[in-house]
Amino acid sequence: METSWISFLIRGFETTVILVVISSVITVVAAAVVALGRISTRRSVRLLTRVYVEVFRSIPLPVLLAGLYFGFGPQFENIGVTAFGLAVLGLVLNETAYLAEVYRGLISSVRIGQWRAAASLGLTRWQTLRHVLIPQVTTAAGPQTANGIIYLVKGSALASLITVPELTMYGTRLVVDTFRPLEVYLLIAVFYLLLTVPVAYVTRAMTGRRGRVRPKRGPHTRPDAPRDSAGSSPQHTEKAWTSTST
Fold first, then answer.
1. Environment class of residue 124 by beta-carbon count within 10 Å: exposed (0-12), middle (13-18) or buried (19+)?
2. 83, 165 Cβ separation under 8 angstroms
3. How far is CA 216 from the centre of its chain?
4. Do the beta carbons of residue 89 and residue 155 sit within 8 Å?
5. pLDDT (mean) for 168-172
6. Distance CA 137, CA 105 (A)
7. What end-to-end distance do the CA atoms of the chain give, in Å?
8. What is the mean pLDDT of residues 131-159?
9. Is the overall model pTM greater than 0.85, yes or no?
10. How many CB atoms sit inside 10 A of residue 104's CB?
11. pLDDT in the model for residue 189
12. pLDDT tens per residue across span 56-79
């Protein structure tokens, strides 16, 4: 293994990083939109998003990329879309279908009582999603989003099939020149680890901070406060009744 190998592979690594970053941002936003469409009150929107999820979740990524490039490549080239753009499109279409179902499941897991409570307060459906449900789902969605980004990192290696000069393509060229595939692919694996491991740790740290809630002590939470037969302090009962009555 030589130092020149690293400098050579860094060229493809830079392309891989750009490809993953752009695809990840678009995928997260698109998945959230599709997930909201899956629970929409409009039947046509639910049907369209369901068809999208079922179709693109069933097509393997290599087939999707090859179909976009060899089937629609000339048409996209006429409007200025390069192979890199087609790789972004293929990755987004594929991973959005998976991640949207994850988000939909998380939203659907929220108890129906919270919907009813928000409706009783006069909140619209969008206000309920924005102020009640989405803050709860965000923490749980962190690890799943990290998994989606890691899948995008691994899927970006298939962009070499449509002539995108990313890390795997540069690695293949290096193997052809050196005839030392074991060392080269081990080095490529290290580069991919440099992308996936930070994503997992950053997401874990963010989720851990959001998940820690320190209870605040007040007058009604004193250990020595007298309690009624139900186990709650009189101050707490009075405060809850007052807030309800107002």
1. exposed
2. no
3. 32
4. no
5. 95
6. 10
7. 74
8. 87
9. no
10. 21
11. 95
12. 999 999 999 999 999 998 999 899
